[in-house]
Design goal:
The complex is a heterodimer of chains A (486) and B (496). With 486 residues, chain A is of the alpha/beta class. In chain A, 38% of the residues lie in helices and 14% in strands. In chain A, the strands form two sheets. An eleven-stranded mixed beta sheet of chain A has the order 1-3-2-6-8-7-12-13-11-9-10, with helices on both faces. In chain A, strands 4-5 form a two-stranded antiparallel sheet. Chain B is built from 15 helices and 16 strands. In chain B, a hairpin with a 4-residue loop joins strand 6 and strand 7. The chains are: A alpha/beta (486), B alpha+beta (496). The structure holds zinc ion. The site of zinc ion has 8 residues of chain B, from loops.
Chain lengths: 486, 496
């Protein structure tokens, strides 16, 4: 089997047995990226000579008897909004196109403890704002299944890199579905953990109360391993959950889903769902039932308002988070501007793309005095309703299921001029971010046009185990082996 | 130490008006590290040497609250008789400024740590209670140095930023608008600084900006119940300036009103050179700070147990100390109030007592008398003086034990003040020790009696005062070192 087609845990077995050198893995991936990324454009920063250098270092480490952990020598791509010391972190924005991070994100520190093989910085929508990865200052990311189609956003790069075998796995970030939606569109597994389970330290913020780092993988074993590697309490992130006072649910693989109760929120199934997507989801639900789970339709009435609440909270926080990009201390600066105000204005006008500007303008409006109560505060109240709806649902069900995206991958430009239709892409994923609960997207089928469809599984906060159980059983049953042509 | 008399300054130039002042005081806390990161706090280091991704506002960095700073804030709030909010949260205050690394300041908005307290200030003839609206936590910004003549950002060729100060924990203490005169405002600041020094939460160094205040001023006719238009004077960083600036500003308002003009709501700056205020910016372009809860920081829940722990850690405060000085040492109201009213002096007083506690009143007299006079003359604080507390204690003890006369003590003190030397060394070096040796004195007395028969016979004739002349002769002979009581005793024994 080709090295690039192997799962991380399969590579790990070979590495452990010393049957393969990291340098060889690196070589295979470098070749693959050089070939495929001409079309896919999954990487913003890709430095083959650095990868080889690192691979040799890891080989030396192994030969000197260094501990081989799950991700030792495993080639991983990292979304370009996650900081790595001395590596360019652009957030796919012109304003940071020359910015080199001065420190490692906590997730990177954790993976460095494994001696992972860093492949490069993955493309994304600028500052993680977008649902198609068309809003990148470094060009769009193409879908490996059909290069006329979008890869989804905002983690289009990390998703496409795993789907097209340019990386064994990758890290993305999910603010309103930015992991699950591109995972769904690219036919890979994308997991958004409970808010606070993975440190956000070193993740350039889009909307701090919604952002969460998570893994993209090609199977569940890798997903669980990568989640375990990056999660845990971090004293540098005060929203990080300290499990000392909470019960940590360890995951145990199961044969079937007997006793598991699943709910299907009708709010996620009715509107704007492609018939093909719907059919595939219903089929997957049948597989759940066949494997012993009891499934019934349920309702979470407040989900109806999730999209509106999200599109108030996210841009509001973003307008404040992005204020630091002003040309003063780092990043782009308009050098000809006369005076401070003009420098701010020209730098930010030139540095930010249209979607980011739209977010900043809208968010500034929502937070300004006179509008705060009517928008931001109200949105937070809706958020509380959504949290309560989910709480109620999880008192009855172990998991909730539905589609990850209402449609399969759409064509480039199709929704670019219609922000509202674009925003609908995240309708299935957004409620989860507002509630801070974990959710996964796993591939569950192909459309007639040979485009992947994603199945979403949600669970209560900190009940990642329930998601993993269901996803592992489904993975075995669906037998997902179809791979993209590219 | 200043006289606290009410009639100290030209407060109310036009008696028909009254001045209403509200103060917002910023206190830089003296924690080891910054408010939201682990960077060390220290003044005067190489620019940008104490910085990290968090206080530089780099992408991805997140704030984490310094627990010590929260405890200091609680300490201040409790010492100012505030109620502690059981759940306190941080907001973001959004505005662009180049010394602010994130372009928002993490501050507190509707749930500050402390609300509704008061400070009692001593106005000499009476005590005033000034209401405290709120005590809240925030972070300081960095510093900019502007090139060019004006020293302001507009018109500078370039500006350089130093972020060492960025993220320094700041406490803002806001009073109710009920301070009635510039003198009261100054006295409030003196009292507040004293309390903060007692708490040990800040060095309160006004020159370095660790204690500074903004003042809101308005005036109104005394029978009016409507507040006049107010102006804000920014960054007052000395007691003198606070009073001067407010006096200027109040009279500016009054003359505007008297000449039929309107006071415009604006932010002003006090210029020490011209002793006047100048407009900084007009309030019309006031900022919309777009406050919202900082999503990077979780709420801080404060339980009774924590409050109690902090309460118990609050040391004796000035008013308690004043009472103790009266009760335990028998000091006068005046002495107790002055001593406790200055943290450094009371601290010095207590250190002196650690070495010699038999005569607190005597020590107090030195502190209030010669010592203060010397310090005032040189415009230095007691902390900067060369006299060590144990040396002052020794001096008082030497007087009490009759080793030196109080006259000699004055010259010894002068020497101590100038050189910082030990009083024993000075006495030894200059041979100033009082002669209390009976044998030695008897010989001198004998001679004086022999040389002054007139005085002796006057004494014998019942003119008791005549003995003073003989004592004087002995003193002259011994250059004032003879123990006067002993001399007296020997003379009487000799001639009666
Ligand atoms: Zn720092």
């Amino acid at each position: 089997m080709k090295l690039t087609c192997m799962k991380a845990h399969e590579l790990h077995e070979l590495i452990k047995k010393k049957e393969i050198k990291i340098e060889d893995i690196a070589g295979a991936y470098i070749d693959r990226i050089e070939e495929a990324d001409k079309v896919i454009n999954a990487f913003i920063t890709f430095k083959p000579e650095e990868i080889v250098k690192n691979a040799k270092r890891i080989d030396r480490y192994i030969s000197e008897g260094g501990e081989i952990r799950h991700f030792t020598g495993i080639p991983i791509a990292v979304k370009d909004n996650i900081c790595i010391k001395d590596v360019r972190t652009t957030c796919a924005s012109k304003i940071l196109s020359d910015y080199y991070s001065i420190y490692d994100a906590t997730v990177i520190k954790k993976l460095n403890e494994h001696n992972f093989l860093f492949l490069g910085k993955a493309n994304m929508d600028e500052f993680a704002m977008g649902s198609s990865n068309e809003n990148s200052a470094f060009g769009p990311v193409r879908n490996p299944w059909n290069t006329e189609r979008v890869s989804g956003g905002s983690s289009g790069g990390p998703a496409a890199s795993v789907a097209s075998f340019e990386a064994a796995c990758s890290l993305g970030s999910d603010t309103g579905g930015s992991i699950r939606q591109p995972a769904s569109l690219c036919g890979v597994i994308g997991f958004k953990p409970t808010y606070g389970r993975v440190s956000r330290y070193g993740l350039a913020s889009f909307a701090a109360s919604l952002d969460q780092i998570g893994p993209f993988t090609r199977d569940m074993t890798d997903c669980i391993n990568l989640y375990n590697a990056i999660s845990g309490h971090d004293e540098f992130d005060s929203t990080s959950i300290d499990m000392k006072n909470k019960k940590d649910y360890g995951f145990k693989a199961v044969e079937n889903l007997k006793g598991m109760k699943a709910g299907v929120p009708k709010e996620l199934m009715i509107r704007d769902i492609d018939s093909e997507v719907k059919a595939s989801i219903l089929n997957t639900i049948k597989i759940l039932e066949r494997n012993g789970a009891s499934v019934e339709e349920t309702t979470l009435p407040s989900l109806e308002y999730a999209l509106s609440a999200y599109h108030i909270i996210a841009p509001s926080e973003a307008s404040s988070n992005l204020a630091k990009f002003d040309g003063i201390r780092y990043g782009l600066r308009d050098k000809d501007a006369q005076g401070l105000r003009e420098m701010y204005r020209k730098t930010r006008s030139a540095g930010f793309g249209p979607e980011v500007k739209r977010s900043i303008m809208i968010g500034t409006y929502f937070l300004s005095s006179g509008h705060y109560d009517a928008y931001y505060e109200k949105a937070q109240k809706v958020r509380t309703l959504i949290i309560n709806d989910f709480k109620k649902a999880f008192s009855k069900y172990d998991i909730l299921v539905g589609p990850s995206s209402p449609t399969t991958a759409f064509r480039f430009g199709e929704r670019m001029d219609d922000p509202l239709s674009m925003y609908l892409s995240d309708i299935c994923t957004i409620p989860v971010n507002l509630a801070g609960i974990p959710a996964i997207s796993i591939p569950c089928g192909l459309s007639d046009e040979q485009l992947p469809i994603g199945f979403q599984i949600m669970a209560d906060a900190l009940r990642e185990d329930n998601i993993f159980k269901a996803a592992c059983v489904l993975e075995g049953e669906i037998n997902w082996k179809i791979t993209p042509k590219i | 130490m200043k006289n606290l008399d009410d009639k100290d300054g030209p407060d109310q130039p036009d008696k028909r008006f009254e001045t209403i002042i509200g103060l917002e005081t910023h206190v830089e806390l003296s924690t080891q590290t910054k408010m939201f990161c682990g960077c060390r706090l220290s003044f005067g280091e190489k620019p940008n040497s104490n910085t990290c991704p968090v206080c530089l506002g780099h992408p991805g960095s997140l704030p984490v609250v310094n627990k010590k700073a929260v405890e200091y804030a609680m300490k201040i709030a409790l010492a100012l008789n505030c109620r502690i909010n059981k759940r306190t949260i941080f907001h973001r205050k959004n505005y662009f400024y180049p010394d602010m690394s994130k372009n928002y300041q993490i501050s507190q908005h509707d749930l500050p740590i402390g609300i509704g307290g008061y400070v009692e200030i001593n106005m000499g003839s009476h005590t005033r209670r000034i209401g405290i609206t709120r005590v809240h936590m925030e972070e300081d910004a960095g510093k900019l140095v502007h090139s060019g003549a004006t020293g302001r950002i507009s018109g500078a060729d370039y500006s350089i930023g130093d972020f060492n100060r960025a993220g320094t924990p700041l406490i803002e203490i806001v009073t109710e608008p009920e301070i009635k005169s510039p003198l009261e405002a100054k006295q409030y600041m003196i009292t507040l600084r004293n309390i903060l020094l007692y708490l040990g939460v800040s060095d309160c160094n006004m020159e370095e900006g660790s204690l500074r205040c903004d003042a809101n001023v308005s005036v109104r006719l005394k029978d009016s119940d409507r507040l006049g238009t107010r102006t804000e004077i920014k960054n007052l960083n000395s007691f003198k300036f606070i009073q001067k600036a407010l006096e200027y500003e109040a009279s500016r308002h009054i003359s505007l009103i008297n000449s039929g003009k309107k006071v415009i709501k604006q932010t002003r700056h006090y210029d020490d050179k011209t002793q006047s205020t100048k407009v900084l910016r007009s309030k019309e372009e006031a900022h919309d700070y777009r406050y919202f809860p900082d999503p990077d920081l979780v709420p801080i829940d404060i339980d009774d147990c924590w409050i109690k722990k902090i309460k118990d850690s609050i040391p004796e405060l000035p008013n308690q100390k004043e009472k103790r000085y009266k009760d335990k040492f028998g000091l006068s109201d005046y002495d107790s109030s002055l001593l406790s009213g200055d943290f450094e002096i009371s601290d010095y007083f207590e250190k002196t007592l650690e070495t010699y506690n038999a005569n607190p009143k005597g020590i107090c007299n030195w502190l209030m008398g010669d010592f203060s006079a010397f310090l005032n003359k040189d415009q230095i604080s007691i902390k900067e003086s060369r006299i060590k507390p144990e040396h002052l204690a020794r001096l008082v003890r030497l007087i009490d034990e009759g080793k030196i006369s109080s006259n000699t003590a004055k010259s010894v003190f002068k020497e101590m003040y100038a050189k910082g030397s030990d009083p024993d060394d000075i006495i030894k070096e200059k041979g100033l020790e009082q002669i209390s040796d009976k044998g030695e004195l008897e010989a001198i007395v004998e001679e004086a009696v022999k040389n002054n028969p007139d005085a002796v016979s006057q004494y014998k004739a019942g003119k008791v005062k005549a003995i003073g002349f003989i004592v004087g002769q002995v003193m002259q002979k011994t250059k004032g070192k003879a123990n006067p009581a002993l001399v007296n005793e020997i003379i009487i024994k000799k001639i009666s």
